[in-house]
Amino acid sequence: MITLEVLIVGIVQGVGFRPFVYKSAINNNINGFVKNTNKGVYILAQGSKENIESFLDSFNNPPQAAQIESINTKTIMSHTLYTNFQIEKSDNKDTKTADIAPDIAMCDDCKEELFDKQNKRYLYPFTSCTNCGGRYSIIKELPYDRDNTAMDIFAMCDDCKEEYNDINNRRFHSQINCCKKCGPRLIFTEIFDYNNLDSSLNIESINPLQNAINAINNGHIIALKGLGGYTLVCDATNNKAIKNLRARKKRPTKPFAIMCKDISIAKLLAKISKQEEELLLSPQAPIVLCDINKSHNIPLHLIAPNLNKLGIILPYTPIHHLLCSQIQVPLIFTSANISGEPIIKDFKNIYKKLQHVCDYALTYNRDIINPIDDSLVRAINNQMQILRRARGFNNTINTLNKEQNFIALGAEQKNTFCININNKTMLSPHLGDLYNIESLNNAKETIRLFTKQYNANINEFIADMHPLYSNKKLVTENSNLHTIQHHFAHLLSNIAENKINKKTLGIIFDGTGYGLDGNIWGGEFLLYDPKQPLKFRRIAFFENFYLLGGEKAIKDIRRLGLEGLFLAFGNQVFQIQHKLIDSLKDEFGENAIDIFYKQHKSGKMPRCNSIGRLFDMVAILCNAVDKQSYEGECGMILESLAETSNITHGYSFKINNQTISIKEILLEIIKDIHNKESINDIAKKFHITLVNIINEISKLYANEYECIAISGGCFQNKLLTNLIQQTNKNIYINKKIPCNDGGISVGQAYYMNLKNKMNL
Hints:
- This protein has 23 helices and 30 strands.
- The chain is globular.
- It starts with a strand and ends with a helix.
């Protein structure tokens, strides 16, 4: 007889792991017990050597949603002889290190019950089991027990208790088990003015689901409460409804995602690869960027204007399945929030902030504890690349050595933070842009969630070196604040994720990052040596250009286009005819160009070498856009145009010492425009030019590096990334960590960890 202690660490709470262990113990004649602890799942197992080995082998096939990080075993002497195997009450004694499980899409078994007229959960919109449903969004604290979730106010009925205690039922020890008798309920309400903002949630709705369906079919916009927050939905085939949504939300061209009833409908809208299909059907159920299939009657010019990519998502909760099964048409599916603010999690703020946007709300009487957006991914070279890491993906990342407790605060845009705590490194969900008090407070509350969960008192922080980033306000009193350069953090995020331990050429292209010289960087070639891991050498960069009017140039990209003309033609620009010159004169008067030229010559405007801004400049120069209404629009449009071109050559360029000149590129682009070359070909030639520049720099410094790592928001451009991979070997990209600013905090954390190891 052997007595063994087993500690299993990873995503093992809230995923049916204890019931799985219980069944395996019974099947293998093991006695003892299993329980949740603050560290993970603890098992005490007694049995013969043969049975113990068979029991341990069963962990090679854990529940679908589980992710085992480690299994630690220890043979002990026991004075107790166990006669059965039990699931014991959770232990809350140890320091908390267990993972918070992510929210999981509805499983096939629950979906089958949802539409089975003979099943007690027929059409019940909160059907779930140990393999699916809310986790992160509803947890208050660890360990993951019903009392610690938003389900604590719902007492299980006798039938549900029987399922909960039945070893042969897949709801055995399901912490969110419920049914029509005892669980949450749907509520449908009009968005109207009333004194008590919570009163509508006490209204007894008659057939709320059908009311919502009728409203959508009649062209109305619905605020739909999902797992992690509200989304705005309407009929994706109804032109008027989509136009109303754009006008009310003040979102003129930014693309909407589409929720399709099933994969067959999705394939009518997009060219979906095998990898993309797997992503759509995965338990994470993210939004997947796919190539548009234009042979259908969906108004894509309204849904994804000027783009050839479409964000598609499949139903991932029972409510979504019920809506989509009866409406039959795809739905517009977009986060319910004011632009730049976090996703809304409660009805009070839907009424307060979006009553002018939505007509009705389909909500329910269970709280969302932790709001979280839908994740956004794409498939590239048969691999998943995460662009927005949020719902469905676990917080724990296994890229760092874990020693000291600290928080890496991330960037100002697409913010995430990375927390190193109790020998565990966790990446927060996507928190958005921190330009307003609501977003900053949301980041503060999410940090509080993690520090509270793990009983942590942290006084070490690391942030971007930008002097005005608002997330530095999150640093607590009497704490130490470290800083790191933005693009170095981008590079380190790639090095951390891919565990690179060799000399690396980092290519970092993005929109904005505060440089060591006080200018805006964003077109960088950096050398990294693991023997000097806290340093980088900037070996090449694109030449600076001016932001005419400062930040106004980022919003009014005509100013960037004009700066491009100044760079290309100097004072001869006054003889140039171009649409944007006429546009600026119309708005600012006949002397506008002279005034802007004086700004350019003054040398007092902010200087920038960002590839993101260069995409904006090229897009406006070649008349691909009139203006930019959302971040990255110009780059996305140029990518879409370029993908339809068969051109295989780029523009000429010069490298003077370390500086990559853009004058020659701009002159040839303007020449192509004058010669009425295809705008698609111009876009493709610009992409190829960037790749040719990368290849040239790579050759110049070939003896100083062993591999290439690319990062930064511009590499969300799939065409650009593919072209680079086709012409370079031994190249690393971000995959599970976003290449955009959502990955900055990981690079910061890696840097901080290195400093701690070196005792600096």
